[in-house]
Here is the input.
Amino acid sequence: MAGARDTAIVTKHTESRAPAGVADGRWHALEIVFWLVPIAAYFVLPDYRILGSQILIAGLFVLSLDLILGYAGIVSLGHAAFFGVGAYTAGLLAVHGWGEPITGLAAAAIVAAAVGYLVSLLVIRGSDLTRLMVTLGVGLMFWELANRAASITGGVDGLAGVTMWNLLGLWRFDIAGRTAYVYCFVVLFLMFLLARRLVHSPLGLSLRGIREGGKRMPAIGAPVGLRLRTIFTIAAAFAGVAGALLAQTTQFVGIDTLGFPRSGEVLVMLVLGGAGRLYGGLIGAALYLIAHDYLAGLSPVYWQLGLGVLLVIVVLFARGGILGGAATFFARRTGR
Amino acid sequence: MKPVLSTRGLSKFFGAFQANKDISLDFLPGARHALIGPNGAGKTTFINLLTGVLPPTSGRVMLGAEDITDVPQHRRVKKGITRTFQINTLFPGLTVLESVVLAIAEREGRAGICHQTVAAQRHAVDEAQALLGRLRLADQAASLTRSLAYGKQRLVEIALALATRPTILLLDEPAAGIPAAESAELFGVIAALPHEVTVVFIEHDMNLVFRFADRISVLVGGAILVEGTPAEIASDPRVKEVYLGEAQHD
Here is the structure.
């Protein structure tokens, strides 16, 4: 009797369980803990809400690079182009009288996606080195475009006069950055949910297939070019939303949103945290900006030296960034 | 019987080097067609031209009556022409199950789906598990491909190809580098394929060739030396001289 019941339970368990070896998108306890941290930070560290917003925005931006670099294996040195396009889209809308935040984000996403699609047509050709150069060139072109069109963008002085309406008509963007923090957090979390589902989906598997076996993909009938155009467009939309968040919460768009340093910075954040894991980019963004804030406080002149040392240490001693290193460490400890 | 796949005057030059010279071959439906010849005879190049990995310098590739010379590789797979690789060309960082599910999802045109998880593609996962079971890879399904023994990885090569449900399967030395006992087992899997599937294979082991092939083409120096049934090839003096003779010198 007891035996029969046990068997029944086991059978039921096997049926409901997803097969081992494919992504089922189930949440790990650590993921829930991870998302409690920014919520706790809001209450525990009220003085750091502005830095916190910057981290949340950078996190979304790194997430978008992770989709193309970490998952599809496409290198980019011009990812700030999409961030900047999003920032200017939202900023210009607000300057010209439409300060509604959510539709501003949506507009930024659409414009950045359109630009991303056009750029993808250039980027999917050629090898890694070609792609580095093409993305770098595109990034520089956009910077120069914003610089030349100073009457529209404000040029190197930046776009001032971005006035935002209340969020959902209710919450004013306050000087202490409370609304901005919650806004950035909610947007990041929702975008993260989309990205998380995407990487666990057949499309995500197909992208990892391109990264792991680009030569095999056409031999199993995969339209590699289409897949890359798709993810490049989606990633550009993500980057555009991140840029729009920055424009809306700081009520200013600097030309540096489009600049090469920002493209390099986002790459560093991703490598620091660990590419191809979604959370790696978020951790990398947090670590980079916190280290930046701390080191700049210690030494306003030499803070970049400290960041450089941190980057070299992580890259040399933790393969796959902080998360990659942690995964290796725990795999070794559990003897697998 | 009309050929399912044929080439007309197919040539591939790499600069001055003539890898394939004026090859006109017919592959009949359901054939077990071996391509043999010494190393450097242009066999792999020929497979690359048939599957669209390389564009030919001149000549045509016909699928039935359709000219597919300009059709890209991934579309030829959709038309039923699938290959395996002489050197493992797999997805090292994907699990074996993921790899096969990916091939099935691509075949079904469902690999662009981004709103459901892979695990939710129940019938693709079930089909992949059944295929892996047939190839005795069920125990390795959840393992990363790179962690598999070499012989098992050769089987994954076959599994990925079969997952596309080919009507024409091109195998580039499927048993390369695995012990004789295992290679016979691997060819057993290939022999058990439905007879509608046309199989073209490159193989150096003459025992396997004569056991499994019903048609043999001999390539030498990028050109077809002779083509015929195994009995005709075995008794052809030119083949003995050029190919088998050379093999005896090894």
